[in-house]
Amino acid sequence: GNSVTQMEGPVTLSEEAFLTINCTYTATGYPSLFWYVQYPGEGLQLLLKATKADDKGSNKGFEATYRKETTSFHLEKGSVQVSDSAVYFCALSPNRDDKIIFGKGTRLHILP
Amino acid sequence: DAGVTQSPTHLIKTRGQQVTLRCSPISGHKSVSWYQQVLGQGPQFIFQYYEKEERGRGNFPDRFSARQFPNYSSELNVNALLLGDSALYLCASSLVGASDEKLFFGSGTQLSVL
């Protein structure tokens, strides 16, 4: 079946550190891949997406590359800020299907 | 422009009761999806509706039902509540519900079943 596995948190980093949150997936066909973010007290919002192999999604300094050969979609940012503290969800949408399957989420704490 | 609005924001029920949650999508969006988010977990898909028709259903019992109205708003109903139904219920809307389309989420309804 379709599933998403992402690294467990919480992840605690100092401001300006490099961030990687690992995400791997299992899916039939060619899913679309997403990172959603949930800031404290706010609703889920799309951070970035990629719809085909080797696509790179980017937004707000975050990047993730759709790697079909390793079935991965790792989230990276070169220099994190305190305002990046949130819960990050990796997700996929199976081809020709309409639901989104989310990972369990990774809580990120950035220390000033 | 208003985002996705959900009501109520919080709800407390007892086991065996029934609950109705409401969602208004972003203006112009014709697809509404419902997700259940248990504390510490990612959201799980419950239903998707497009143009008042059910397009998809997740692995939830028949106690869960939903509908979409002509104005594209939606209701989620849960009958015979169980303690395990305690969760944050999220509504999301999109233009046409395509698989690679961006979902816009509401802030959710926090349901507590005692």
Q: Which key features would you list for this structure?
A:
heterodimer, A: 112 residues, mainly beta, globular, B: 114 residues, seven-stranded mixed sheet
Describe this structure in words.
The complex is a heterodimer of chains A (112) and B (114). Chain A has 112 residues and is mainly β. Chain A has strands spanning 3-6, 11-14, 19-21, 23-26, 32-38, 45-50, 56-59, 62-65, 75-77, 86-93, 101-102, 106-111. In chain A, 0% of the residues lie in helices and 49% in strands. Chain B contains no helices and eleven strands. In chain B, strand 5 (44-50) and strand 6 form a beta hairpin. Chain B is globular, with a radius of gyration of 13 Å. Chains A and B meet through strand 6, strand 10 and strand 11 of A and strand 4, strand 5 and strand 10 of B.
Which structural class best describes the helix and strand composition of chain A?
Answer: mainly beta
Biggest beta sheet summary of chain A? 6 strands, mixed
State the distance separating the first and last CA atoms of chain B: 37 Å
- The H/E string of chain B reads EEEEEEEEEEE
Radius of gyration of chain A equals: 13 Å
Largest sheet of chain B: 7 strands, mixed
Number of strands of chain A: 12
Radius of gyration of chain B: 13 Å
Greatest interface (CB-CB under 8 A), with counts per chain:
A-B, 25 and 29 residues
Which regions of chain A contain 5 or more consecutive residues with pLDDT less than 50?
none
